[in-house]
Here is the input.
Amino acid sequence: MAFKKEIGPISAAFLALGGILGSAVPFLPAIVFAYGGPMGILSWLIGFVIMSLLGLVFAELGSTYPETGGVVRYLHFSHGAFASFFNAWGTFIGYFMAVISETVAVVEYLAFFYPSLFHNGSLTPLGEIVTILIILILFLVQYYGVKLVSMTNDIMTWIKVIGLVAFIIITPLLVFHSSNFTPPSGIAPYGLSGVLTATSITVYAYAGFRQPIDYGEEMKNPSKDIPRAVIYSILISLGIYFLLSVVFLGALNWSAIGTKPYNWSYISSLSAPIPQEFTSNILILGIYFFIIAIIATISSTLVYFGSAARVLYANAKNGYMPKVFLRLNRSGVPYVALIVSLLIGIFYLFAFPQFLSEASIFSVASVISYAPASVSLLVLRELDNRKRVFKLKYAKIIAPIAFSLGGLLIYWATYPTTLYTISSTLVGIPIYIYYEIRNKSKFRNIILTELKRGWWYVAWLISILLVSYLGSFGGINLIPSPYDMITVFLISLLFFYLGYVYGKYGFVKE
Here is the structure.
């Protein structure tokens, strides 16, 4: 049974917006100030530049190779099985963390009215039960087909985009404290490092641009719709998130959230930061935003849930997951992969019952899986001359810069977040070797061929982890700023070109 091509241009764009305008909406416009103070608002602009470069890379790859779960297929084409599996493993971690973090965000916001769901920074047992019920409902929507998913997501995306624009326009007319932008303690209380750490968390918002790519085989005209969806969604999201942060800071009432003025770090402890800043006669604004935030988060969860299943499908197609993941139901949905995604999502719920920790791990895992596409882009241009409807200009300059800036995004997430995420990604290596031995019984082929093609990817991450431990972003500060960041950028450039060279020998033509 084949996938059904039922996604048109608007639905393609809304898949991206559905992923981007999710649980980041109720949290990140406030969290950037917890990390960076008033200057934290610049994190949206820095994150936009970096994620736009990566987005342009994916716009070409996604339109040229419209594959279900395409993100794990590009490295398979350019660098062979090991690099592809290692990339897929990082994607698994990111998508599964996204599914559970989005659902946990819904319940944390519900705790605004039902405090028994959330206590001392984590979900209560009742909160975990409610989270599981929400996941089960979204599972059923996904199970009955991509048409139902796209229709549901279209409706919710229209509501949240219109609702957020209205909120951004109305709120400053009713309340705006300009003093929050120029506090006595200065606009950058945590310095440049605080702004850059805030930038790393904005990945959680922008990362959803890749969702249309994972549904590539289900689109009516992917060669045109994927680039448009990626580019437009990132631009729209910059505008919405930047303005939401301005609105949040302008409306921030320190006494309403229960702390002294300019206690920036306290913001990250709030379960519903934006609704909690509204009191008395403007409480209705908080309730209005609460409704929009719930719709935005559920919509995003729905999109990520389907993407997680399609990544499992794609890796089974590559030959490095059980073939049972290739089974489709009557609606053309990879239902076995969807069921496994459900079970893994529930497991992550019990392991990480708090939104912010989940969001940080998701952000790092996303960049780990996104950045290597820049290497694939140049390799596949050289080795595959198929027609490219969308072709990125100046790719030989943009691709290495995008990859190296991706390395900085990982580094800025701070140690030990880098340790947790990169270590989890490295766990995929023995799993890959097991599948190679089981499927081919050619261990020599693994050592001399596949690992040779992909070793640069692993070495790049281990190098960043080492600098993260030695550097100034949560590390022991043996390599002080800015030398630590310069080191990460130069190391990333080196591994980009090593990946490019080894990619010439890893091309798999299908």
Observations:
- The first strand starts at residue 118 and ends at 119.
- Residues 9-392 form a domain with the Amino acid/polyamine transporter I fold (CATH 1.20.1740.10).
- The mean pLDDT is 87.
- The radius of gyration is 22 Å.
